[in-house]
Give the backbone structure.
Amino acid sequence: MVEMIMHVELCKGCGLCQATCPQDLLSTSDQVNSKGFYPVVLLDKAKCTGCALCARMCPDLVIEIHKQTA
């Protein structure tokens, strides 16, 4: 099981994570965060494979990927 945590209040909406997601699960929100940016949000948590490409591309370390073992 994979848990993805996005700290949307820290996101600047650069889109680097969105461009690298092989599952195309990230999208730009239509809501502005407290910093005035349109953050990237996860569309479907269940489809995330936990590859962590998004987290590696994020220049602001907004994304955390936690893989849970059974």
User: Anything to note?
Assistant: The chain is about 15% helix and 25% strand. The first helix runs from residue 16 to 20. The chain has one domain: 2-67. Helices lie at 16-20, 53-57.
